[in-house]
Amino acid sequence: MRRAAVVATVFTAGFAAVFAAIFSASCTTLAPLHAPDGRIITEAQTDHRLLRSRSVELHTARYTVHKTFPVLDAGIPSAPVINTRVEEAIRAAERDFLQAAAQAAQLELHAPWDFVVTWTLSEFTPQRFSALLEIYAYTGGAHGSTTLVPINVDIPSGTEILLSDLWKTSQGGVAAEPKTHAEPNARAEPNTRAESDWAGWNEWLRALSETARPLLAAELKRTSGASPDADWLEEGTLPAAANFRIFTLKGDTLIFRFAQYQVAPYSSGMPEITIPLEAVRQLARSRKTGAPQ
């Protein structure tokens, strides 16, 4: 057991040294590939040694697919877990899009449909990988729809980082039990104390809700020029883990995004707010003790 711990420590330290040493960038673009059915497929990738941004395009007479997504180097601990999660999220959305496109073709609907995947890196260290996928699909109508998929993984263990893990860490506790790689959906995020005996979880969610709501109201007013609908905003920020499931990490700060229609109309987009973990912890503690906030 001790030998295994030493080996793991040496491996992590070695990765950290390599991580700090490289990160030099170069870009390679591959020539277009012409598929037999008339599709045009192009690929390009920006190579940062440890983390690449890969782009794949597919053009047909009925639709266009443009995917840009992260690919971690195989030498990084948990790279297969992270890469698989990214691929599965994109594949599921793309499958639905292509099925809809095939049905539209049978109905002779020839609108220029689009499927676009982009991503934003929030944090990449030897301990943590945090990024956000934005998956946009236009299948006719007034506008398309965008799905946000956060990818938050503890690199040494390959465990998905849940909101409840951050709560436990902020309380000085330990993270939730890790899922196994064979059971990708084994971990469930508790929404209420009735589903979990974790003391303080509900209080922490309430503190998060109370912290997020005024920040969101200010952000929506800044971007739209008008005060948001109070009932809509309250409903979308109720103290439930599901309302705060879209987050990424940057140091000790949480970056939240809110889905289309969650807190405001489509025209308001998917607002973003930033909340320090310490601010939520202090508010939760003051609520529990009754101390002034």
Please explain how this structure is put together.
With 293 residues, this protein is α+β, with helices and mostly antiparallel strands. It is built from six helices and twelve strands. The protein has helices at residues 2-21, 79-106, 163-170, 201-224, 230-236, 277-289; strands spanning 26-29, 33-34, 40-47, 51-59, 63-72, 113-124, 128-138, 145-154, 159-160, 247-250, 253-257, 272-276. The strands form two sheets. Strands 1, 2, 3, 4, 5, 6, 7, 8 and 9 form a nine-stranded mixed β-sheet that branches. Helix 2 links the parallel strand 5 and strand 6. Helix 4 packs across helix 6 (277-289). The radius of gyration is 22 Å and the shape is globular. Residues 1-11, 20-43, 173-187 and 191-197 have low confidence and may be disordered.
Kindly summarize this structure in a few lines:
The protein is 34% helix and 28% strand.
Instruction: Write down the Rg.
Output: 22 Å
Binned, the helix content reads: 25-40%
Quick one: overall form? globular
Distance between the termini: 46 Å
Low-confidence stretches: 1-11, 20-43, 173-187, 191-197
The name of the CATH superfamily of the largest domain reads Fervidobacterium nodosum Rt17-B1 like
Number of domains: 2
Helix-strand pattern = HEEEEEHEEEEHHHEEEH
Number of helices: 6
CATH class of the largest domain equals: Alpha Beta
Main sheet record = 9 strands, mixed
Beta content comes to 25-35%
Q: What is the annotated CATH architecture of the largest domain?
A: 2-Layer Sandwich
Q: Please tally the β strands and state the result.
A: 12
- SSE class: alpha+beta
| Overall pLDDT level | 79
For this structure, the CATH topology of the largest domain is Heat Shock Protein 90
